[in-house]
TrEMBL record:
<feature type="signal peptide">
    <location>
        <begin position="1"/>
        <end position="22"/>
    </location>
</feature>
<keyword id="KW-0378">Hydrolase</keyword>
<protein>
    <submittedName>
        <fullName>Uncharacterized protein</fullName>
    </submittedName>
</protein>
<feature type="region of interest" description="Disordered">
    <location>
        <begin position="22"/>
        <end position="59"/>
    </location>
</feature>
<dbReference type="Pfam" id="PF00545">
    <property type="entry name" value="Ribonuclease"/>
</dbReference>
<dbReference type="InterPro" id="IPR000026">
    <property type="entry name" value="N1-like"/>
</dbReference>
<feature type="compositionally biased region" description="Low complexity">
    <location>
        <begin position="32"/>
        <end position="44"/>
    </location>
</feature>
<keyword id="KW-0732">Signal</keyword>
<keyword id="KW-0540">Nuclease</keyword>
<dbReference type="InterPro" id="IPR016191">
    <property type="entry name" value="Ribonuclease/ribotoxin"/>
</dbReference>
Length: 141
């Protein structure tokens, strides 16, 4: 009977580490909805299912590029406003000419760098910091 008593007494202590996060869990607001879950309130229909970023979370250079787009320029790079082909198929499929790209300057870079804002014919705005490998839908505020 004594071994059973020792086991039952020690059992909670043995299970405790399995239930603990060890203080390493960092709570973070998910930026993409789970499959089948509704998108966060205020997410435009064109951005549903995508990773999103608010305008205020963008680098200051990206916010400035968005301001230039809204004003219609002038743009600092000749390629700004040219058709983005979406050859990587990472944005929703659209007819050629639907998307246009704009450079987001990278401080210290002697080239255009890898950062871009891609616009759609309507209100769509996408940000890529890695030259079209990944995109985030830019949502307000």
């Amino acid at each position: 009977m004594r071994p059973l008593t020792v086991l039952l007494t020690a059992l909670p202590l043995l299970l405790l580490p399995a239930c603990s996060t060890g203080g390493h869990h960092k709570a973070e607001r998910p930026r993409t909805p789970a499959a089948g879950a509704p998108a966060p309130a205020g997410t435009p229909s064109w951005a549903k299912g995508m990773k999103t970023v608010s305008r205020s979370e963008l680098p200051p250079e990206a916010r400035r590029t968005l301001e230039l787009i809204e004003k219609g320029g002038p743009f600092p790079y000749d390629k700004d406003g040219t058709v983005f082909g979406n050859h990587e198929n990472r944005l929703p499929k659209q007819a050629r000419g639907y998307y246009h790209e704009y450079t987001v300057p990278t401080p210290g870079s002697r080239t255009r760098g890898a950062r871009r804002i891609i616009t759609g014919e309507h209100t769509e705005r996408y940000y890529t910091s890695d030259h079209y490998q990944t995109f985030e839908a830019v949502v307000q505020p």
